Amino acid sequence: xxxxxxxxxxxISGLSSAQVNMEMIQNDIDQSVWKEFKSAFERxxxxxxxxxxxxxxxxxxxxxxxxxxxxxxxxxERFQMLKEKSAIVKLDFWFESRHSNSDTSYEVxxxxxxxxxxxxxxxxxxxxxxxxxxxxxxWKIIQDWDTTIINGRRIGQKEFERMxxxxxx
Length: 169
Fold this sequence. Notes:
By secondary structure, this protein is of the alpha+beta class. The protein is built from four helices and eight strands. The strands form two sheets. A six-stranded mixed sheet has the order 2-1-6-5-4-3. A two-stranded antiparallel sheet has the order 7-8.
């Protein structure tokens, strides 16, 4: 009986340790990637945003698959246009699901991006799936998939606001 109790305590202890470790990993990703991602968007800084991605990234959008990192040049062009128009960008997002180990993380969430140009606000909502990989000790985005439509329905304020207990970033 003592052996069973001992094994049970060890299992519970191991699960608790794994949860703490995953929380530490996700906190590391939050600080090194997501905080910087949000900041780069809101500062309209394409160079800082692009630096969060690995040298080789798989980027998938409704427009297709990019395996040549052409999205990085598009970021520079888009952000330059936003700067020329004196735009203000506000990005918020939350996670629906996060799974991490010591060197890989898969995260699913929803975003809301508001852009203000000449006192006109444009708001876009979407869902993202991101894969991070720890490369030379630094978390980098290696896969980035997002869409504004799920099951034929446009993602909107209702889907974004269902975040419930999830933390908004």
